[in-house]
Amino acid sequence: MDREYILLSIYKLTKILFRFFAPDGCLLECPFPETKETDPLCSDQELFQRLTNEFRTERQKGCIMFDEGFYYAAVRVEEGFLAAGPVSVEKKSEYTVHRYLERYHPKNDTFPVSVYRLKDMIELCSFVTSIWTNRTVKRNDIFSEDYMTHALEKEMTGYHLENSENDNFHYSYAMEQEMHFYFEHGRYKEYMQKGKEEKFSIDSMGKLADKNEKQYEYMCVCTITLSTRSAIRAGVLETRAYEISDIVLQQLSRAKNVLEMSRILEKGMGKLDEEICAALNDSNTNIYVEKSKNYIARHIYEKIQLEDVAKEIPLNPSYLSRVFKQNTGLNISQYILQEKIAISCNLLKYSDASIARIAEYMNLQPQSYFTKVFTQVKGISPGKYRIEQKRKLNAW
Predict the structure, then answer these.
(1) Greater pLDDT, 331 or 188
(2) Are 264 and 285 in contact (CB under 8 A)?
(3) Across residues 383-387, what is the average pLDDT?
(4) Are 382 and 371 within 8 A, CB to CB?
(5) Among 29, 72, 247, 257, whose Cα sits 20 to 30 Å from the Cα of 241?
(6) pLDDT of 246-261, one tens digit each?
(7) Domain limits, the chain
(8) Which residues of 227-261 are buried (b: 16+ CB within 10 A; e: fewer)?
(9) Closest residue by Cα to residue 135 from 123, 127, 144, 145
(10) For 191-247, how does the pLDDT look when each residue is reduced to its tens digit (9 = 90+)?
């Protein structure tokens, strides 16, 4: 029988992903070859080594290995071994699963993680091995009774240790990370609708100040600062994210009480959430457009031509120009100018650099050319724009 078909059928029946590895860790058979890159056992040699060490230590045909609240099961066969995992014995939050997988591959949220009781997994291992080897393999042929008892005790010890650590040392950090997980995925409103016990409180970040008002202010500053980084990671233009952050921090410094701070923080987080949702929607339009924008962002202070962007992707310049225009409504030259002007606005607003220096910095010199294109885009000269924005900042 075709081995890939066996593994695929097992997965369809149980939602447990078994793979067949050579003794050196090379993946030989998998029902979903595209998951190889994000497979923890393939992407982390140390994890794979720990699993194979279990065989040598326990002298079993099968072994169970625990790793931060998840476990892996493996069975020795003639040419290598069958391995399943990561598996959880209980339902875990989407955030917890994502955080675990991310340890082994950046932005890993596609690799399957199932919920399966340990004793059922042991029975499943014997069943899969029987089909694979075309002979009857019983549970005791793979795992001795002593080993299974040992595995269960090991699981419970790890479970209690994990809970103890989370309660005593990492609770506030876990809440913080969960909030930013929702935030980066454009799901901040969903997070805010969850129960109050899962959100920040004035004491959840530890003692930052003696007075409650100052404690709350520091909490707000920490929250908006970390959220700004989350927004940038989610694809929000760096200058835009920092602009929102700066304004919120300035407002917090002038707030008179906790209620006012709360409103300022809520408004700032809501604005960052809007920018993240827009960035996520925009980045899903077309892979070539996304790559073009990333290249432009990295080289925004240089002189950029269509040919430079097309060469980076790589793609025919004419085709790229057509795709970009269809998805954004702008040709690449217009988009580059728009982004340069957006950064120039921030420099005019927040810095004291001369207009000539900003024109040089943005590669839009001479100053007369910079003034001309800035006025065309914004409908106002750079000098007048600076005066208006400085006045607004002072009024805030």
Answers:
(1) 331
(2) no
(3) 90
(4) yes
(5) 257
(6) 888 888 888 888 888 8
(7) 3-143, 188-283, 287-395
(8) bbebbbebbbbebbbbbbbbbbbebbeebeeeeeb
(9) 127
(10) 776 654 444 444 444 444 445 677 778 778 888 888 888 888 777 777 778 888 888
| Location of structure tokens 């924008």 | 293
| The predicted structure's pLDDT at residue 247 | 86
The percent of residues in the chain predicted with pLDDT above 90, rounded, is 7
CA atoms of 228 and 273, how far apart (whole Å): 10
The full length of the chain comes to 396
Residue indicated by tokens 């929102």: 244
Range 3-143 classified under CATH 2.10.260? no
